[in-house]
Amino acid sequence: MREFAKHSHQQPCHLTRLLKSRLNMLASQLQGIGKMLDAETTEPKQILVKFKAVTNGLRSAGHLILDEVFRKGSRYWL
C-alpha cells in the first residue's frame, strides 16, 4: 500500500510505464513459479509464497488504475 500512495497522482504516461513495468515483473514471477513446479525439489510453501507475491502485485496494479479512475471522475463532479 505504501507504493500505491507514493505513486498516486502521477501523470498518465508515467502510470502507463509503471503498470507495464509491474506487469513485466509479474510475468517473470509467473515464469519462475512454472519452473518451481517443474522442479521436484521445490517445497509447496515456497510456491505459495510466490503466488502470494504475484497476487499482491496484481492487487497493487489494480489500485493504481482505480486511483486514476477516481481522480479523473472527481474532476467531472467539481
Number of strands: 0
Number of helices: 3
Averaging pLDDT over every residue, what do you get?
Answer: 83
Return the CATH topology. Methane Monooxygenase Hydroxylase, Chain G, domain 1
Low confidence ranges: none
The second-level CATH architecture is Up-down Bundle
User: For the CA atoms, what is the radius of gyration?
Assistant: 16 Å
Q: Main beta sheet: strand number and arrangement?
A: none
Output the helix-strand order.
HHH
User: Which of globular, elongated, flat, extended, rod-shaped describes the shape?
Assistant: elongated
DSSP strand content:
under 5%
Q: What's the domain count? A: 1
- Which range best describes the helical content: under 10%, 10-25%, 25-40%, 40-55%, 55-70% or over 70%? over 70%
SSE-based structural type: mainly alpha
Straight-line N-to-C gap: 27 Å
Classified by CATH, the class is: Mainly Alpha
Describe it.
The protein is an all-alpha fold and 78 residues long. The chain has a single domain (2-77), classed as Up-down Bundle (Methane Monooxygenase Hydroxylase, Chain G, domain 1). The chain is 86% helix and 0% strand. It is built from 3 helices and no strands. The protein has helices spanning 2-7, 12-38, 44-77. α2 packs antiparallel against α3 (44-77). The longest helix is centred in the C-terminal third of the chain and has 34 residues, at 44-77. The mean pLDDT is 83.
